[in-house]
Amino acid sequence: MNRRFEFEPIGLCRSPYTDKFGIPRQPRLVTAAEARIELLPPYDREEAFAGLDGFSHVWLLFVFHQDCLEGGWRAQVRPPRLGGRDKVGVFASRSPYRPNPIGISAVAQHGLERQGKRLALRIAGADLLDGTPILDIKPYVPYADAIPEAEGGFAHTRPQARFQVGFSAQAHRQLIEQDADGRRRLRALIEQVIAQDPRPGYMDRYPERRAFVVQLYALEIHWQLDGDRALVTCVRPVPSTSVSKTER
Ligand code: SAM
Fold first, then answer.
1. Which string of DSSP letters, residue by residue, matches 197-243?
2. 94 lines ligand 1 (CB under 6 A)
3. Could you tell me the distance, in angstroms and rounded to a whole number, from the CA of residue 98 to the centre of ligand 1?
4. Domain extents in the chain
Protein backbone atom coordinates (compact mmCIF):
# COMPACT_ATOMS: atom_id res chain seq x y z
CA MET A 1 0.00 0.00 0.00
CA ASN A 2 1.20 3.47 -0.82
CA ARG A 3 1.99 5.11 2.54
CA ARG A 4 2.76 8.55 1.20
CA PHE A 5 0.28 10.86 -0.43
CA GLU A 6 0.90 14.14 -2.11
CA PHE A 7 -1.77 16.82 -2.22
CA GLU A 8 -1.66 20.34 -3.53
CA PRO A 9 -3.76 23.22 -2.25
CA ILE A 10 -6.79 24.21 -4.28
CA GLY A 11 -6.70 27.68 -2.76
CA LEU A 12 -5.40 29.96 -0.03
CA CYS A 13 -7.45 31.43 2.79
CA ARG A 14 -7.34 35.22 3.10
CA SER A 15 -8.46 36.05 6.62
CA PRO A 16 -8.09 38.96 9.07
CA TYR A 17 -5.86 36.72 11.24
CA THR A 18 -2.34 37.71 10.28
CA ASP A 19 -0.88 36.31 13.52
CA LYS A 20 -1.71 33.11 15.39
CA PHE A 21 -2.39 34.97 18.65
CA GLY A 22 -6.01 36.08 18.44
CA ILE A 23 -7.35 33.35 16.16
CA PRO A 24 -10.43 31.78 17.73
CA ARG A 25 -10.02 28.16 18.80
CA GLN A 26 -12.87 26.91 16.66
CA PRO A 27 -14.93 28.24 13.75
CA ARG A 28 -18.04 30.39 14.22
CA LEU A 29 -16.90 31.80 17.59
CA VAL A 30 -16.04 35.07 15.82
CA THR A 31 -18.83 35.52 13.30
CA ALA A 32 -17.63 39.01 12.29
CA ALA A 33 -14.49 37.51 10.72
CA GLU A 34 -15.06 37.74 6.99
CA ALA A 35 -12.60 35.87 4.83
CA ARG A 36 -12.29 34.30 1.42
CA ILE A 37 -10.75 31.32 -0.23
CA GLU A 38 -8.79 32.46 -3.26
CA LEU A 39 -8.87 29.57 -5.72
CA LEU A 40 -5.65 28.60 -7.44
CA PRO A 41 -5.54 27.49 -11.09
CA PRO A 42 -6.79 25.08 -12.40
CA TYR A 43 -9.45 25.07 -9.61
CA ASP A 44 -10.57 28.68 -10.14
CA ARG A 45 -13.57 27.70 -12.24
CA GLU A 46 -17.17 28.65 -11.49
CA GLU A 47 -18.45 25.28 -12.74
CA ALA A 48 -16.57 23.50 -9.95
CA PHE A 49 -18.99 25.23 -7.52
CA ALA A 50 -22.25 24.68 -9.41
CA GLY A 51 -24.95 23.64 -6.92
CA LEU A 52 -23.17 25.02 -3.86
CA ASP A 53 -25.48 28.04 -3.57
CA GLY A 54 -28.14 25.91 -1.86
CA PHE A 55 -25.75 25.12 1.02
CA SER A 56 -25.31 27.72 3.74
CA HIS A 57 -22.11 26.18 5.14
CA VAL A 58 -19.06 24.35 3.87
CA TRP A 59 -16.35 22.18 5.38
CA LEU A 60 -12.83 23.42 4.82
CA LEU A 61 -9.99 20.92 4.93
CA PHE A 62 -6.70 22.72 5.34
CA VAL A 63 -3.06 22.45 6.31
CA PHE A 64 -1.80 23.89 9.61
CA HIS A 65 1.12 25.25 7.65
CA GLN A 66 2.66 27.54 10.26
CA ASP A 67 5.05 25.86 12.70
CA CYS A 68 3.23 22.48 12.52
CA LEU A 69 4.82 20.84 9.49
CA GLU A 70 8.25 19.99 10.86
CA GLY A 71 7.39 16.78 12.71
CA GLY A 72 6.08 18.71 15.67
CA TRP A 73 3.36 16.30 16.74
CA ARG A 74 3.04 15.06 20.31
CA ALA A 75 1.05 12.08 21.62
CA GLN A 76 -0.41 14.26 24.38
CA VAL A 77 -1.40 17.91 24.32
CA ARG A 78 -2.76 20.44 26.82
CA PRO A 79 -5.96 21.90 25.35
CA PRO A 80 -6.61 25.57 26.21
CA ARG A 81 -10.12 24.41 27.09
CA LEU A 82 -8.63 22.61 30.12
CA GLY A 83 -6.76 25.75 31.18
CA GLY A 84 -3.53 24.56 29.52
CA ARG A 85 -2.90 22.26 32.54
CA ASP A 86 -4.37 18.82 31.92
CA LYS A 87 -3.20 16.58 29.11
CA VAL A 88 -5.27 14.57 26.65
CA GLY A 89 -4.24 12.38 23.72
CA VAL A 90 -3.71 14.15 20.43
CA PHE A 91 -6.53 12.13 18.87
CA ALA A 92 -8.88 13.34 21.60
CA SER A 93 -8.01 16.92 20.70
CA ARG A 94 -8.24 19.42 17.85
CA SER A 95 -4.62 20.47 18.32
CA PRO A 96 -2.80 21.69 15.18
CA TYR A 97 0.25 19.63 16.25
CA ARG A 98 -0.79 16.27 14.80
CA PRO A 99 0.92 13.51 12.81
CA ASN A 100 -0.72 14.90 9.67
CA PRO A 101 -1.33 18.59 10.40
CA ILE A 102 -4.72 18.81 8.71
CA GLY A 103 -7.56 20.96 10.06
CA ILE A 104 -11.31 20.87 9.50
CA SER A 105 -13.68 23.78 9.98
CA ALA A 106 -17.35 24.25 9.09
CA VAL A 107 -17.97 27.88 8.10
CA ALA A 108 -20.71 29.96 6.49
CA GLN A 109 -20.30 30.44 2.75
CA HIS A 110 -21.48 33.61 1.02
CA GLY A 111 -20.93 32.74 -2.62
CA LEU A 112 -18.29 33.27 -5.26
CA GLU A 113 -16.72 36.59 -6.10
CA ARG A 114 -14.61 37.36 -9.14
CA GLN A 115 -12.09 40.20 -9.01
CA GLY A 116 -10.37 40.47 -12.38
CA LYS A 117 -8.88 37.05 -13.04
CA ARG A 118 -9.18 35.90 -9.43
CA LEU A 119 -12.07 33.72 -8.26
CA ALA A 120 -12.76 33.49 -4.52
CA LEU A 121 -15.36 31.88 -2.25
CA ARG A 122 -16.50 34.30 0.45
CA ILE A 123 -16.76 32.76 3.92
CA ALA A 124 -17.41 33.95 7.48
CA GLY A 125 -16.50 32.72 10.94
CA ALA A 126 -13.26 30.92 10.04
CA ASP A 127 -10.50 30.04 12.52
CA LEU A 128 -7.74 30.02 9.90
CA LEU A 129 -4.54 32.00 9.71
CA ASP A 130 -4.17 34.29 6.70
CA GLY A 131 -2.42 32.34 3.93
CA THR A 132 -3.60 28.90 5.10
CA PRO A 133 -3.47 26.36 2.23
CA ILE A 134 -6.90 24.82 1.55
CA LEU A 135 -6.94 21.18 0.45
CA ASP A 136 -10.66 20.81 -0.19
CA ILE A 137 -14.09 22.42 0.16
CA LYS A 138 -17.18 20.27 0.72
CA PRO A 139 -20.80 21.21 1.44
CA TYR A 140 -21.94 20.88 5.05
CA VAL A 141 -24.82 18.41 4.89
CA PRO A 142 -27.01 18.89 7.99
CA TYR A 143 -28.73 15.50 8.01
CA ALA A 144 -25.37 13.70 7.98
CA ASP A 145 -23.05 16.16 9.73
CA ALA A 146 -25.21 17.52 12.60
CA ILE A 147 -25.60 14.98 15.42
CA PRO A 148 -27.92 16.50 18.05
CA GLU A 149 -27.34 13.70 20.60
CA ALA A 150 -23.52 13.85 20.30
CA GLU A 151 -21.44 14.16 23.50
CA GLY A 152 -18.67 16.75 23.48
CA GLY A 153 -16.26 15.32 26.07
CA PHE A 154 -14.24 18.05 27.79
CA ALA A 155 -15.47 20.56 25.18
CA HIS A 156 -19.18 19.90 25.47
CA THR A 157 -20.47 23.46 25.51
CA ARG A 158 -19.67 26.47 23.40
CA PRO A 159 -17.22 28.69 25.33
CA GLN A 160 -18.89 31.81 26.68
CA ALA A 161 -17.54 35.28 25.94
CA ARG A 162 -15.20 35.95 28.86
CA PHE A 163 -14.51 39.70 28.70
CA GLN A 164 -16.60 42.81 28.18
CA VAL A 165 -14.78 44.88 25.60
CA GLY A 166 -14.68 48.69 25.52
CA PHE A 167 -12.70 51.26 23.54
CA SER A 168 -10.80 54.32 24.77
CA ALA A 169 -11.64 57.59 23.00
CA GLN A 170 -8.34 57.36 21.11
CA ALA A 171 -8.93 53.76 20.03
CA HIS A 172 -12.46 54.66 18.93
CA ARG A 173 -11.11 57.47 16.70
CA GLN A 174 -8.41 55.23 15.28
CA LEU A 175 -10.93 52.48 14.61
CA ILE A 176 -13.06 54.83 12.52
CA GLU A 177 -9.98 55.98 10.59
CA GLN A 178 -8.98 52.40 9.85
CA ASP A 179 -12.42 51.18 8.78
CA ALA A 180 -14.08 54.32 7.48
CA ASP A 181 -16.64 52.48 5.32
CA GLY A 182 -17.21 49.73 7.92
CA ARG A 183 -16.53 47.06 5.31
CA ARG A 184 -14.11 45.13 7.51
CA ARG A 185 -16.55 45.13 10.46
CA LEU A 186 -13.52 46.03 12.53
CA ARG A 187 -15.30 47.01 15.71
CA ALA A 188 -17.33 43.79 15.93
CA LEU A 189 -14.28 41.78 14.90
CA ILE A 190 -12.09 43.25 17.66
CA GLU A 191 -14.88 42.89 20.25
CA GLN A 192 -15.51 39.24 19.40
CA VAL A 193 -11.81 38.30 19.18
CA ILE A 194 -10.95 39.79 22.57
CA ALA A 195 -14.22 38.76 24.29
CA GLN A 196 -13.43 35.08 23.75
CA ASP A 197 -10.07 35.52 25.56
CA PRO A 198 -7.36 34.77 23.03
CA ARG A 199 -4.65 34.45 25.69
CA PRO A 200 -2.95 31.07 26.09
CA GLY A 201 -4.59 28.86 28.74
CA TYR A 202 -1.66 29.25 31.15
CA MET A 203 -2.04 33.07 31.31
CA ASP A 204 -4.44 32.81 34.26
CA ARG A 205 -1.34 31.99 36.30
CA TYR A 206 0.15 35.42 35.50
CA PRO A 207 -2.52 37.89 36.67
CA GLU A 208 0.08 40.69 36.76
CA ARG A 209 0.27 40.62 32.95
CA ARG A 210 -2.49 42.89 31.79
CA ALA A 211 -1.34 44.48 28.51
CA PHE A 212 -1.68 42.56 25.26
CA VAL A 213 -1.54 43.07 21.52
CA VAL A 214 -3.42 41.16 18.84
CA GLN A 215 -2.83 41.63 15.15
CA LEU A 216 -5.78 41.77 12.73
CA TYR A 217 -5.23 42.60 9.06
CA ALA A 218 -2.17 44.90 9.14
CA LEU A 219 -3.25 46.48 12.42
CA GLU A 220 -2.03 46.15 15.98
CA ILE A 221 -4.81 46.17 18.54
CA HIS A 222 -3.50 47.08 22.00
CA TRP A 223 -5.71 46.17 24.97
CA GLN A 224 -5.57 46.03 28.74
CA LEU A 225 -7.35 43.78 31.18
CA ASP A 226 -9.01 44.85 34.38
CA GLY A 227 -10.94 41.93 35.89
CA ASP A 228 -13.46 40.85 33.28
CA ARG A 229 -13.19 44.13 31.37
CA ALA A 230 -10.89 44.58 28.42
CA LEU A 231 -10.13 48.11 27.25
CA VAL A 232 -8.83 48.61 23.73
CA THR A 233 -6.37 51.49 23.99
CA CYS A 234 -4.86 51.75 20.53
CA VAL A 235 -5.57 50.57 16.97
CA ARG A 236 -2.63 51.31 14.72
CA PRO A 237 -0.84 49.97 11.64
CA VAL A 238 1.75 47.28 12.31
CA PRO A 239 5.18 48.90 12.15
CA SER A 240 6.87 47.65 8.98
CA THR A 241 9.79 46.13 10.94
CA SER A 242 7.49 44.27 13.34
CA VAL A 243 7.67 40.48 13.65
CA SER A 244 4.87 38.16 14.82
CA LYS A 245 4.10 38.53 18.46
CA THR A 246 1.95 36.92 21.08
CA GLU A 247 1.78 39.24 24.03
CA ARG A 248 3.81 42.00 25.52
N1 SAM B 1 -11.27 23.91 13.46
C2 SAM B 1 -9.96 23.34 13.17
C3 SAM B 1 -9.91 21.88 13.56
O4 SAM B 1 -10.60 21.50 14.51
O5 SAM B 1 -9.18 21.13 12.92
C6 SAM B 1 -8.85 24.11 13.86
C7 SAM B 1 -8.85 24.04 15.34
S8 SAM B 1 -7.32 24.57 16.01
C9 SAM B 1 -7.58 24.34 17.73
C10 SAM B 1 -7.47 26.30 15.82
C11 SAM B 1 -6.15 26.97 15.99
O12 SAM B 1 -5.28 26.59 14.94
C13 SAM B 1 -6.22 28.49 15.89
O14 SAM B 1 -6.55 29.06 17.12
C15 SAM B 1 -4.81 28.85 15.46
O16 SAM B 1 -3.97 29.03 16.59
C17 SAM B 1 -4.33 27.60 14.74
N18 SAM B 1 -4.19 27.79 13.30
C19 SAM B 1 -5.11 28.26 12.42
N20 SAM B 1 -4.61 28.26 11.17
C21 SAM B 1 -3.35 27.77 11.26
C22 SAM B 1 -2.30 27.53 10.31
N23 SAM B 1 -2.48 27.77 9.01
N24 SAM B 1 -1.12 27.03 10.77
C25 SAM B 1 -0.94 26.77 12.07
N26 SAM B 1 -1.88 26.99 13.01
C27 SAM B 1 -3.07 27.49 12.62
1. --S-GGGGG-TT--EEEEEETTEEEEEEEETTEEEEEEEEEPPTT--
2. yes
3. 11
4. 11-145, 164-237
Residue closest by Cα to atom 12 of ligand 1: 96
Express each pLDDT in 97-144 by its tens digit: 999 999 999 999 999 999 999 999 999 999 999 999 999 999 999 999
Class of domain 11-145: mainly beta
Q: For the segment 162-200, what is each residue's pLDDT rounded down to a tens digit?
A: 999 999 999 999 999 999 998 899 999 999 999 999 998
**Ligand 1 near 64 CB (within 6 A):** yes
Q: Same CATH fold, 164-237 and 11-145?
A: no
Quick check: pTM over 0.90? yes
In 10 A of CB 67, how many CB atoms? Answer: 11
